[in-house]
Amino acid sequence: PVTMAAAVASWKAFVAATAAGADVYGPECAALREHGMTALAETHFLESVEAAFKTTHVPAFRAALERGGPFLSSSHAHDSWAWVDDAFPSAVATFANAADDVSRRADALETALRGEGKKETETETETKHARRGIMHKTNGFGRRGGSRLRRRARALVAAVAATRGPPSVVSV
């Protein structure tokens, strides 16, 4: 029998793993699946991604791309736009790494939440497709283009960047 204490403990472990930015989710996901809390876990993950991008990643990206004027160093005195050459590549790389981390974590979470039983079904489906000559790449759910949770998380990141990003980038 499922106890409330077990469900709460599983939830606390999951929240801690999400906050830590783990690429690998542990047994807490199996427990959440048993407690019927997978949709809640996905919602929490997406909300944590949105909060991180609104409060940390997009403001840092924006600040890096808008540091002209008083933030120019003396080495930039001859070229008022030289700071862009310094700031833009690293700011974009940092932002892209954060988005890639979200994708990795979303894939890891979706795999952990769907459990081991689904993998056997996926293998059987892939075998049937191979026998029928259907040779397109799928993500295991029979769709192309990656995991459902990853697509939702990336769309959320794009929406935050589009509404809160630097005006020079958002307007492009």
Automatic annotation (TrEMBL):
Keywords linked to the UniProt accession: Signal
Cleaved signal peptide residues: 1-21
Keyword Signal: yes
Identification of the protein by name: Uncharacterized protein
Species whose genome carries this gene: Micromonas pusilla
Taxonomic placement: Eukaryota, Viridiplantae, Chlorophyta, Mamiellophyceae, Mamiellales
